[in-house]
């Protein structure tokens, strides 16, 4: 190929939105337009026919993910107007052979998707022998969320086969440039372009990265630093959506207004108003931690105030959550410290020392364990199981991207009901 191809994946449900995004992406420098699997499942071959009608000179890729009936599915995609049809690399060899024969008959190329293949290098070699035209080093969305990397897969297969290699899976301008350096012939970008408020501009950024790739800076962040960086970029509603509307700690209010926190939980259980354990927990907490305090249901007496907050600032604590009350709010607000509680009361308790630190507790009806991720902003507080921190953070960022595109379409004159096509998707 004379240049690296930019393929934009339209993984949406609504065809009218997909057409508009495709138009903007092509203007921004995209070469190929992909009818993504969700779009094909939602709209059928109408999606491919419409894209062909709207963009008669474009290369249209049909991501059919063919697993069986190779001839039938390749035929219908080809007749609908596709130039390239995607099949699953782990389909049986008989399916691959039939798809290849159909591709030759109907004049379309076949792209084999290595998603979930156990031996990608070996299978890529077999597929080349079987007559497949393009191999796609693809890490799926759910795999990306737990940290699998499409560039690692690309690196494994690039030098092992002689046909064009595509790469897909969570790519942005930086990782697209890295893919170009590794030797990708086709770079497939979905969400970073299709969910952008400025599709044309985002496509142009990717195009620039492919045409003039620069060496990527070495990764310096630890996994916890990466998780915290992602969580700070998103809202608690984004996170709740990413967790299927779970994780919220209801009843908590940001007492300092527009502040944000994200960190691993240090949990405290204390008897109402006994502030000994909450204060002791500060000294043992690592910088960036969030103290989560169960005040045993009491809101008539506070286990927390200004001096404890000042101590947190000195220790680099990211924030405090109290299933109970706080006091000295005027002083704490002046510090702009992320403090979330259910009530404000002037009464303080006594430091008797009852309770425990770093044990599983209940906070606002939710279980919170030491090391869980806690995120708070003006919309409230959410708790994320510690082992799912990276996954949920990545999913929340995808939610934010989706909302950015919807917001832009509303600004252009649409409405939420129209964009979401609510009537079509109502339960029947």
UniProtKB/TrEMBL annotation:
GO BP field: 'de novo' pyrimidine nucleobase biosynthetic process; L-ascorbic acid catabolic process; methylation
SMART domains assigned: OMPdecase (SM00934)
Matches recorded under InterPro entries: Aldolase_TIM, Bifunct_HPS/DMK_prd, HPS/KGPDC, OMPdeCOase_dom, RibuloseP-bd_barrel, RraA/RraA-like, RraA/RraA-like_sf
Keywords for this protein: Carbohydrate metabolism, Lyase, Methyltransferase, Transferase
Pfam families, alphabetized: OMPdecase (PF00215), RraA-like (PF03737)
Domain Orotidine 5'-phosphate decarboxylase: 5-206
Region (Disordered): 205-224
Molecular function as annotated in GO: 3-dehydro-L-gulonate-6-phosphate decarboxylase activity; methyltransferase activity; orotidine-5'-phosphate decarboxylase activity
Name of protein: Dimethylmenaquinone methyltransferase
Species of the source: Methanoregula boonei (strain DSM 21154 / JCM 14090 / 6A8)
């Amino acid at each position: 190929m004379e240049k690296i191809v930019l393929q934009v994946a339209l993984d949406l449900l609504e065809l009218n939105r997909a057409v508009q995004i495709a138009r903007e992406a092509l203007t921004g420098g995209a070469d190929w337009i992909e009818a993504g699997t969700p779009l094909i499942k939602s709209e059928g071959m109408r999606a491919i026919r419409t894209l062909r009608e709207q963009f008669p000179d474009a290369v249209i890729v049909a991501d059919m993910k063919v697993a069986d009936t190779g001839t039938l599915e390749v035929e219908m995609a080809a007749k609908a107007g596709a130039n390239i049809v995607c099949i699953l690399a782990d389909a049986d060899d008989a399916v691959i052979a039939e798809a290849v024969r159909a591709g030759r008959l109907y004049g379309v190329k076949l792209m084999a998707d290595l998603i979930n293949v156990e031996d990608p290098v070996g299978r890529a070699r077999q597929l080349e022998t079987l007559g497949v035209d393009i191999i796609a080093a693809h890490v799926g969305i759910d795999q990306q969320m737990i940290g699998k990397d499409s560039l690692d897969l690309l690196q494994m297969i690039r030098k092992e086969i002689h046909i064009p290699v595509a790469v897909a899976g969570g790519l942005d301008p930086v990782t697209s440039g890295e893919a170009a350096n590794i030797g990708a012939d086709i770079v497939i970008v979905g969400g970073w372009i299709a969910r952008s408020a400025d599709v044309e501009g985002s496509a142009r950024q990717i195009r620039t990265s492919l045409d003039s790739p620069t060496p990527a800076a070495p990764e310096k962040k630890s996994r916890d630093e990466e998780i915290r960086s992602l969580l700070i970029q998103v809202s608690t509603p984004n996170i709740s959506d990413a967790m299927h509307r779970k994780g919220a700690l209801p009843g908590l209010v940001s007492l300092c207004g527009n502040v944000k926190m994200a960190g691993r939980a240090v949990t405290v259980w204390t008897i109402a108003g006994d502030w000994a354990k909450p204060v002791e927990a500060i000294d043992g907490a690592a910088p960036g931690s969030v103290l989560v305090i169960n005040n045993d249901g009491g809101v008539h007496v506070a286990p927390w105030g200004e001096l404890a907050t000042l101590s947190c600032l000195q220790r680099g604590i990211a924030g405090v959550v109290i299933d109970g009350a706080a006091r000295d709010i005027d002083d704490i607000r002046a510090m702009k410290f992320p403090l979330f509680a259910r009530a404000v009361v002037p009464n303080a308790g006594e430091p008797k020392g009852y309770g425990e630190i770093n044990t599983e507790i209940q906070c606002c009806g939710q279980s919170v364990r030491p090391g869980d991720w806690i995120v708070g902003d003006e919309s409230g507080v959410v708790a994320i199981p510690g082992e799912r921190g990276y996954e949920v953070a990545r999913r929340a960022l995808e939610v934010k991207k989706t909302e950015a595109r919807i917001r832009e379409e509303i600004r252009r004159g649409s409405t939420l009901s129209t964009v979401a096509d609510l009537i079509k998707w109502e339960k029947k």
